[in-house]
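Journal club prep, notes for RB
We'll compare a predicted complex against what the paper describes. Inputs for the N-hydroxy-L-asparagine case:
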Amino acid sequence: MSRPLDPERRRFLRGTGAALLGASALPACSLVTQRGNSSPPERFEGRLVVSTWNFGMAANAAAWSALQSGVPHPVYAAAAGARVPEADPAVTSVGYGGSPNAKGVMELDACVMRGDNLACGGVAGLRGFAHPVSVALDVMDHTPHVLLVGEGAGEFAASRGHEQRDLLSAEAAARYAKWQTKQERPAPIDDHDTIGLITLDNGHFGMAVTTSGWAFKLPGRVGDSPIIGAGGYCDNEAGACVATGTGEEMIRHVAAFAVVEQMRNGLSAKQAAVAVLARIRRNFRARDMNTMVALLAVDTSGGVAGVCTTKNFEFAVHDEDHGGVLHPGEHLAP
Ligand code: SD4
């Protein structure tokens, strides 16, 4: 049974959703993008990189070069792409320059997965490291585990020699200070944009997700992004999916896994993503809330779909025939 929201919280969720979506939560990005007006072609041939949001354009370009240079598996190309927004202070929801938790501390989440053998790795609540996605790769490649959290994740990252960095940019500190001075200080529910990348090369899927998560979240809060099956999943036999938006909804529905399983049952990327997103929205509406959830999926035939509960979603696609193109997400019909 779903827990009814108290009227205060209900008002807050409605208010923040409307305000933030109206203003678009997308961070400024200096990249010149080739903006497609419509959905991508029905299917792509050959190598492919897709990722969430407009900052996915620069990430895709890096992932594409990595694919071209012959990485051992496309997951390493996905991670190479993810490192771009992790290092970019203009991206206010990923890595350096992302948003801190309610105590002003940066806690980052990331995961990676490969579709041939389902090897995967993740870190949650990682503090003080520049590239959580690289630490996630090391969890996959150098431990028998799939997810390390908090202090242990940090100790592991240090033991592997990962770059340490103060992740709170001056701009992020200013945003935090502004948020702190507000009388009511709920965390803004739609103030977060994760990058999730899917790479496909010769039938082999790779996937990477990285984020600073929900801005001003409770310390210790973990979203969907480091959780295999929630924020991302891939399987060469079925397809791949990454998610962005309110992670609690993705965790509840094991969203990325659900989309991949629908593709395994024969649905296209678009049919699968729409089916799962509709289920997620039905469920959160039943809890009297509204929020942003977007699913980006690729099927084994090279079909790509990006669907969202709101109108502001965009996704980036890079392939041989078209180069890099930014596509508008499809808004799920009301
Ligand atoms: C989270 N899903 O931590 C992430 C944030 C996000 O678009 O994707 N925002 O809930």
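Talking point for the session: The mean pLDDT is 88.
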